[in-house]
Amino acid sequence: MFDRIRAFHRPTSVAQALRLFEAERRRGGRGRWVAGGTDLVVQRERTLRWLVDLTCLPLGYVRRVRGGWAIGATTHMAEIEHSKTLLALANGILAEAAGTCGSRQIRNMATIGGNLANASPACDLAPPLLALDASVVIAGRGGRRTVPLDRFFRGVNRTALNGGLLVEIRVPAPPKGKAAWSYQKLGRLQSDIAVVNASAGVVLDERGFCTRARIALGAVAPTPLRARRAEALLEGRRLDGAAIDAAADQAAAEAKPVTDVRGTAEYRRAMCRVLVSRALEECARRVGRSL
Amino acid sequence: MSDLIVHVTVNGEARRWRVEPGDLLLDVLRREGLWGVKRGCETGECGACAVLLDGEPINSCLMFAAQADGRELLTIEGVADGEKLHPVQEAFLDHGAVQCGYCTPAMVLCAKELLERSPKPTEAEVREALSGVLCRCTGYKKPVEAILAAAAAAPKTRGKTARRRRAAR
Lengths: 291, 169
Fold this sequence. Notes:
The complex is a heterodimer.
Chain A: E1 7-9, H1 14-27, E2 30-34, H2 40-43, E3 48-53, E4 62-65, E5 68-72, H3 77-82, H4 84-87, H5 93-98, H6 104-107, H7 112-117, H8 126-131, E6 135-140, E7 143-148, E8 153-155, E9 158-159, E10 165-172, E11 178-186, E12 196-204, E13 210-218, E14 225-226, H9 228-234, H10 241-254, H11 265-286
Chain B: E1 4-10, E2 13-19, H1 25-31, E3 50-53, E4 56-59, E5 72-74, H2 87-94, H3 104-117, H4 123-130, H5 141-153, H6 160-168
Parallel strand pairs in B: 1-5
Antiparallel strand pairs in B: 1-2, 3-4, 3-5
């Protein structure tokens, strides 16, 4: 299937990987980065001439860092799913989302960096990472730059990478206060590609008012996105049933779904509303508020 | 097209493969005569091509052969100890868990890995471990029963190596 590939590079450092990628790019012919292969191989691009493999780079890690957490780009979904550090972060929504990313074999191969860089609208980790204000660190010829995740996705399978290499995901420590998060996914099975997915995060003050709200949607637009107007409706309000209804309506209005084999646009919009509502209700339960 | 040399351990034996840069692991394993690694959907969904890579199940149809360099692979051909079948294989026979047999190698490997990490699994854990292997005869009940029976019959010491492996990471 990939009989036109003439070079398969296996660098052991980021600097070497960038040099190889650049040299191949100058030589010409289509090439890509590859890690787990779970998207790349399935996409069956017969015109690929070269690949730069990332599985020998020292980028498989989950670390506490100053101001938050850092996750190496080639950390497997299975490692995220079982990471004690991530299970303890934000009600474990990153671990939960990673645990729904395909079968066990897929989760042993697929990486968090690949999940994001593939830029599928239904990307499992995007909604929880967007709800956590995550950024990605991109290494390139000019050094490293940090891009907020909500500016990373540019379209279906399109990102701000621009030939650079995604090396790390940064998750800032959430603000102090009563906080809760939720991840919701709708698929025929939990491990299927999402028909719709969503995440919510809320921070409440001592009176129960929302000081910060995050609502992130997946599979309802060309890219995963934040429903900013829905978030704005919640901030400054008490997190009650009426506020949740209003925010869920608004989030569904911000969705721009399409019809495909997994669902119609109408169904997706309706389910987007349901998932946002469930996510916010779960957040409310998790901070101990009865609705 | 320059060939690559891949040093890999397959079923306990060191191997030196000459592969093309675009070769997939599934194709190379079958070319090497390991026909228990089945070609199914080739899109990572059916799991019939599953093998254990450093002890953990992966789909060999999605991995490039070059990526196996320096790693350890176990296929169904390496599960039995000579003529002596693995307890999971014995249990599959005892429970009539094999129909057409196409998914059986992958199911046995996934079950073996599960019992090494969780020697006394619940039925839900067994079903989760098999969820990435699709049976085209749709016969899941007997494999689940077989794996639970193999777990029930096993002495309690199993699972140590898997735990040690995980702790080392």
